[in-house]
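Note to self: keep these together.
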Amino acid sequence: MVRHAFSILAPDIATRLICFSDDMDGLRKVPENVPNADLLAEHLEKPLTAIPDPFGTHDSFGAHNNARLRAFLDSFGFDYEFMSATQMYRSGAFDRPLAILENYQPCWTLFCRHWAKPAARPIPVLPLCPQTGRVLMVPVRAPGCERRHVAYTHPDTGVGNDNTGDGRRVQTAVEG
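Structure:
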């Protein structure tokens, strides 16, 4: 609707509608309305595209959800471009945005000036545990940021780790 209104107001400006699926988001809880819920329980906190499809129709739960979303949009005749976070990271398309790590302190300083009560530092990236594949909700440390490496302390082991920003192990997020 907004895109249509804009095309009427500014017919010479090209537009496109992007439907973006954050399918690298970690599964927080098992949905009650899916079959084989026990299958999902062992994959909590893993990216949706790293979890088997409980319906058995796609390569992953994320792929299943993406197909359902696209079918819904197609049923209404939407003209859109579909993008998947998993595909964007794997292709390297999001490697450049990881430059936020290089400018984390200046960004944080600017953020604090404009936010009345910053409760906690936002986490600019969420590393994926190389052993379990789970999304780790841990703060990253500054060392190594200039190389776009993510240094963090694993919550279970306490061991410091480096994860590369190769598009396969980190996802951008702003969490409080």
